[in-house]
Amino acid sequence: MLKTIMLRKKLNETMKKLEQARNKEAELKTREAELEAAIEEAGTEEEQEAVNQAVEEYEQEKAANSDELKNLEKEVSETEAEIAKLEEKQRQSDAEKDAEKNKRGVTTMTTRKKFFGMTAQERDAFIAREDVHAFLERVRTLGTQNRAITGAELTIPTVVLELLRENIEEYSKLYKHVNVRPVPGKARQNIMGTIPEAVWTEMCATLNELSLSFNDTEVDGYKVGGYFVIYNSILNDSDINLAQEIITALGQAIGRALDKAILYGTGTKMPLGIVTRLTQTKKPDGYPDTARTWENLSTINVTTIPASSTGVKLFQSIIKASGAAKGKYSKGIKFWAMNETTKTTLVAEALSFNAAGAIATGMGDVMPIVGGAIETLDFIPDNVIIGGYGDLYLLAEREGTTISQSEHVRFIEDQTVFKGIARYDGQPVIAEGFVAIGISGTTPAATMAFAEDVANKTDSGTGGE
């Protein structure tokens, strides 16, 4: 039943959020111990102020996470109950249909599990089924420029060993942190201005008029994607499920491009990135009159911490720099993006004054002392940290990642084309909700190289003003 499939998808998404909330709860307990140690370490008035700010943010995150845990647990329980009810109804219906078909000598077989959710034993049994085997043979014999896949013949060894591939857990690491909104066309995000303060006056006096403003930001949709071409003979002879590996690679390629755009996108034929916006020193041409007042954040939300700051001083500086990210429009959950080298540096520095906390947060991919999930992305330069309140970045999803293959495009060459596309636009709606921090004397750069749009004879650009 389609409704059951939709509910299971909803349940899986909710379970992922619930797991993140539970991990967050464990992280908060670790941070509480870290903050207790930081309170004891703080000596000067400046250090105490930095710790007080961190404690206030911690309390807000703890309360928000507690509420989210309760809501998610309730949602999981209700969804599971609804699925169970629908599946029981479906089983009864299937039993009646099977009984009727068996009377006519027809054997039935139904499949309800998704391939990627099976164990190895279940998958082997699934593939061994005659109808599934016939389908896979059909995929292998489909007919699709092979310049994008080199060394494919190496997947046909005389001794079968496991395939070594890049360890990318998800298609996009930042997708789950930002505010994703599916839209069919152009979309407008309305933004309410700062709530004014009411005015005290005499009991019988005339009330003062309060002012409240509204702004908006508009997003469209741009395509990201590509394709692979491979000879059918290699598809047929490979000892691994090469079609599946190519499909996975396409999804990961799109996810990598999306993550890069969220952080460094130029805003031209792609989303506007966080760093690109923060490093702007003047209002861009064509900035909409209905949008929020443009502010130069390059000296406030972009920070360079000198190389002389290490250990406790380094994290005090990071706490102060992260405080530039304003979360009054946010639900209060931050994320931090950096490469593996930078993450290792932070954990090592934290070990110098809080070994237990550094180990716990480092193993859990949590920012030491400051808190918030760490996402490692190798295209970010060394010693650069980008982060803030992810829900203040609007990612308009016109079309999620779609993978397809063609038996017609390269039919005469006996090749199969695997294509992946997605359509997105986005921008930091509340730009002051984010920061870019450079440690060890590094200043976060405004630009980032993107893959060249060779097929259309244009350059997709580099980040910048």
Written account of the structure:
Helix content is 40%, strand content 17%. It has helices spanning 2-41, 45-103, 120-128, 130-140, 232-237, 242-264, 274-278, 311-322, 340-351, 355-363; strands spanning 179-182, 187-192, 214-219, 222-231, 302-304, 334-338, 373-376, 384-389, 393-406, 415-428, 434-438. By secondary structure, the protein is an alpha/beta fold. Helix 1 packs antiparallel against helix 2 (45-103), helix 2 (45-103) crosses helix 8 (311-322) and helix 9 packs antiparallel against helix 10. It contains 10 helices and 11 strands. The radius of gyration is 26 Å and the shape is globular. The model is unreliable at 104-117, 141-148 and 156-162 (pLDDT under 50). It folds into 2 domains: 2-102; 216-456, phage-related protein like fold, CATH 3.90.1690. It has a 5-stranded mixed beta sheet. The chain has a 4-stranded mixed beta sheet with strand order 1-9-10-4. Strand 9 and strand 10 (415-428) form a beta hairpin.
Give a summary of the structure in a few sentences.
With 465 residues, the protein is of the alpha/beta class. It is 40% helix and 17% strand.
Helix and strand arrangement:
Elements: H1 2-41, H2 45-103, H3 120-128, H4 130-140, E1 179-182, E2 187-192, E3 214-219, E4 222-231, H5 232-237, H6 242-264, H7 274-278, E5 302-304, H8 311-322, E6 334-338, H9 340-351, H10 355-363, E7 373-376, E8 384-389, E9 393-406, E10 415-428, E11 434-438
Parallel strand pairs: 1-9, 5-11, 6-7
Antiparallel strand pairs: 2-3, 4-10, 6-8, 8-11, 9-10
